[in-house]
Amino acid sequence: MKIEVYRDHLIPALISVASVVERRQTLPILSNLLVKTLENSLVLTATDLELQISCNVEGTIDVPGAITLPAKKLADICKALPDNSVIKLEVADKRAIIRCGPSRFMLSTMPAEDYPGLEGDSVHQSFEIDTELLCRMFECTSFAMAHQDVRYYLNGLLVQIHSGKLVLVATDGHRLAKSELLMPALDAWEQEKQLIFPAKTVSELKRMLGGKFGATTIFEIGDRSVVIRIGKNVLTTKLIDGRYPDYERVIPYSLKYTTTIDRETLRNALTRTAVLSYEKQKGVRMTFADGSLKLEVSNPEHEEAQEDIPIVFNGDDTTIGFNVSYWLDVLNAMTGNLVEVRFSDSEVSSILVDPESDGELYVVMPMRI
């Protein structure tokens, strides 16, 4: 095996696949990545047996072949090489020699035939979606996923297909983020489909989508796994086995009041007041009154912060406690200039909506302060 590849072409693919590799492995070969040549390119593949990423890189193939190389060492070496340099890789006598200008490295290898690839299920259904739109949907929902919750299905992100819509939902039981997109191509899907993506898959998929490896993304859906094609790169993932809860039941659509606030003004005010919030509770008291929104926080050290924001509101004075971090997560996820807040009282969850982004909705539960 003998190949040449530009360092700047190799690095993005190398970073994508190497991120799948866990530090501790039950199988030593899983610390490696598979390097396999095609006619005018090479394919890098890494897996942890739950998630697999393959990235295609243009290169000059002098002698074709396949081998596995230590993922972290290879990535660290290539990242330390000069920009715009050419990397030469040659495999002989179970050793890989990497040359770049005056630099020379020798790495151990393991046979390609021993590499345990992750194969997707038989494809039952597939669809195609604009990569930029899909990236936005993941960005504005994934932050609400649970972490190490005993309800294991909440530790992932729901991708739901029904009634001609693609819907992404994440919740940790205290807040919920939802993004939906009308897709006429999905009208033919008579049966609802629920896919629960693991958190690691969501993280790696966001990285690949953000890299804009392809203008469109293709989903190929099997019984227990999904293959996602972004340009010439492929992500294969197993799904979380379980039924996601009925999230529509926790969305309070009939709320008494509505007000619209400048997003940046509110975000900055919450950021300042959060400095003095009680670390364990992160509580902020919000009082919606005639013409203003008052933000108040305090902590056990008897320190206090207060902010007043002008708003258009003519209802009864209403005070509700919230976790300030949940609000900041939502405001940071939004991209518009305004945020529409819908609320009733301190016993009912509130809804935040970006008026400039159709299909995005956020629910935040109140808390006692």
From TrEMBL:
Residues 1-118 form the DNA polymerase III beta sliding clamp N-terminal domain. CDD domains: beta_clamp (cd00140). It is found in: Cytoplasm. InterPro entries: DNA_clamp_sf, DNA_polIII_beta, DNA_polIII_beta_C, DNA_polIII_beta_cen, DNA_polIII_beta_N. Its main location: cytoplasm. It comes from the Bacteria. GO terms for molecular function: DNA-directed DNA polymerase activity. Residues 129-246 form the DNA polymerase III beta sliding clamp central domain. Keywords: Cytoplasm, DNA replication, DNA-binding, DNA-directed DNA polymerase, Nucleotidyltransferase, Transferase. Residues 249-368 form the DNA polymerase III beta sliding clamp C-terminal domain. It holds the Pfam family DNA_pol3_beta. Forms a ring-shaped head-to-tail homodimer around DNA. Confers DNA tethering and processivity to DNA polymerases and other proteins. Acts as a clamp, forming a ring around DNA (a reaction catalyzed by the clamp-loading complex) which diffuses in an ATP-independent manner freely and bidirectionally along dsDNA. Initially characterized for its ability to contact the catalytic subunit of DNA polymerase III (Pol III), a complex, multichain enzyme responsible for most of the replicative synthesis in bacteria; Pol III exhibits 3'-5' exonuclease proofreading activity. NCBIfam families: dnan. Belongs to the beta sliding clamp family. This is Beta sliding clamp. It comes from Thiorhodovibrio winogradskyi. The gene is dnaN.
